[in-house]
Amino acid sequence: MQTFDEKDIKNYYDVFNDHDYLQIMKYLSRAKWRYGHGSYRKTDQEYYSSPPFWIMELNEDEFFSEILFEKIKHIIGKKSSLHSVYANGHMYGTKGRPHQDWIDESGLTFLYYPNSKWDIEWGGKTAFILDRDKYYYRNPQPNSAVLFPGMIWHYAEETSRLFSGLRTTIAWKIVLEK
């Protein structure tokens, strides 16, 4: 396992302006969610999936795949192209499994937290496995994001019983251009 450091993970706050944020929340309230997605981990023998959770495909939505992605490219300051974009939704009892988004250094993930509010008692952190015994945790603070190399093993922790909604993230999978 390749090791990483906290410095490899970049945090961003107040990512989108109020207009964009309201549009994102409007889009995520649409009836386009599909249940049954999972975090997949490949072993030498087979694929393992996490318990299922919600997903909304956003590749075909110009707002996410073009308009917001252009803003993200400006934020991160790297020449890149979009591989895919989708929203994940977790509720109490669902969590991801440790997985990588990329198998090489060409890919980044920009993980955005659109939740309108978040209480630390609700759990739902994103956990990053930096080394065998070294972890980094990120709370899903509203209108914030984290950028990380897609090779970092990570997963969504489950929310607590105190949370009764849908913990959402939007993942832009980004390919770095040379």
Instruction: Return the average pLDDT rounded to an integer.
Output: 90
Q: Using DSSP, what is the number of strands?
A: 12
State the separation between the terminal residues, measured CA to CA. 25 Å
With strands numbered from the N-terminus, the spatial order across the biggest sheet is: 1-10-7-12-6-5-2
Count of DSSP H/I helices = 2
Q: Report the major sheet.
A: 7 strands, antiparallel
Low-confidence stretches: 43-48
Q: What portion of the residues fall into strands of 2 or more residues?
A: 35-45%
The radius of gyration is 15 Å
Coarse structural class: mainly beta
Helix content: 10-25%
Shape category: globular
Order of helices and strands: EHEEEEHEEEEEEE
Describe, in plain words, how this protein is organized in 3D.
By secondary structure, the chain is mostly beta strands. 15% of the residues lie in helices and 38% in strands. The protein has two helices and twelve strands. It has helices at 18-28, 62-76; strands at 10-12, 34-37, 40-42, 47-49, 53-57, 80-90, 107-113, 126-131, 134-138, 144-149, 153-156, 167-176. The strands form three sheets. Strands 1-10-7-12-6-5-2 form a seven-stranded antiparallel beta sheet, covered by helices on one side. A three-stranded antiparallel beta sheet has the order 9-8-11, with no helix packed on it. Strands 3-4 form a two-stranded antiparallel sheet. The longest helix is centred in the middle third of the chain and has 15 residues, at 62-76.
